[in-house]
Design a protein that fits this description.
- The structure is a single chain.
- About 45% of the residues lie in helices and about 10% in strands.
- Helix 2 packs parallel to helix 8, helix 6 packs across helix 8 and helix 9 runs parallel beside helix 11.
- The protein starts with a helix and ends in an 8-residue tail after the last helix.
């Protein structure tokens, strides 16, 4: 990121987090495999999350398999913190959310990842520090972990099979967090070096095409000509043609009758 872009960020903002000073913390309780930790770290950085905390990792820390599976998410791996107690890992957080696929006896708010994202964004904007807690791969969180949290996060999945691996679960939370802070249209046309055709260019294409179809005898029944011409125009209008595509089509029309197109 350029110095100009960095200068435009508010104090404390971090470029790797999308300009957020304190994005959510990810806490993994008793993670078993370094591979899973590394894949979770990769998913985190995909979504601008950089603060990873481990509680009693089974194979110790640091872990070569975690580094290998992080695929370049070194900022997450290098700054990972390790704790022996859950309470210590959560001590500096203002709000904690715990992920689980199973309903429990505790009476707590339950968020989906999509619903949690704006909640966390609002909390972070007020200067609060928030974290999301993930249980061991094999068993998930326990009741004592749920009691430590302000709310539960449950991913609405196929009720017949809700099992997620650790990195998938982290990515689902992180993805919704990231999407809640970016303004990307749900659909856009990739134009590369061209641009959408103007109405004038399209009208000239249609006139050119229809003239050649007239010459070839395509419009054999005059009464049907207006409707057929409209249908042809609808075909091309649905295609969202670019300037270059219109030029190509007009060149094709000319080439089919042995001429050379001049724009």
């Amino acid at each position: 990121m350029s110095d100009v872009a960095n200068a435009a960020m508010p104090d404390g903002a971090r470029p790797e987090t999308g300009g957020i000073a304190n994005p959510p913390v990810i806490i993994l309780i008793e993670p078993q495999l370094g591979d899973n930790i590394g894949k979770a770290a990769r998913a985190m950085l995909n979504c601008g999350l950089v603060d990873l905390r481990l509680v009693r990792p089974r194979d110790g820390w640091p872990n070569e398999r975690a580094t290998a599976n992080a695929s370049g998410a070194d900022i997450v791996i290098d700054n990972t913190k390790v704790f022996e107690r859950e309470e210590d890992a959560l001590a500096d957080l203002n709000r904690v959310y715990v992920t689980t696929a199973r309903t429990r006896d505790a009476i707590k708010p339950v968020f989906t990842p999509k619903g949690l994202a704006p909640e966390m964004r609002a909390n972070v904007s007020r200067g609060e520090k928030v974290g999301v807690l993930f249980g061991p791969e094999r068993t998930g969180v326990r009741n004592e972990h749920i009691s430590m949290a302000d709310a539960v996060v449950t991913v609405p999945l196929n009720p017949g099979f809700t099992s997620l691996n650790l990195a998938q679960a982290v990515l689902l939370i992180g993805y919704e967090w990231w999407q809640a802070g970016v303004d990307v249209p749900d659909y856009q046309m990739m134009m590369n070096d061209t641009f959408p055709a103007t109405r004038d260019e399209l009208d000239r294409l249609f006139e050119h095409l229809e003239a050649e179809l007239d010459n070839s005898g395509f419009f054999r029944v005059e009464a049907k000509r207006p409707n057929m011409a409209r249908n042809i125009r609808n075909i091309f209008n649905r295609a969202n043609l670019t300037h270059q595509e219109v030029q190509t089509l007009r060149g094709m029309i000319v080439a089919m009758r042995g001429g050379k197109f001049k724009a």
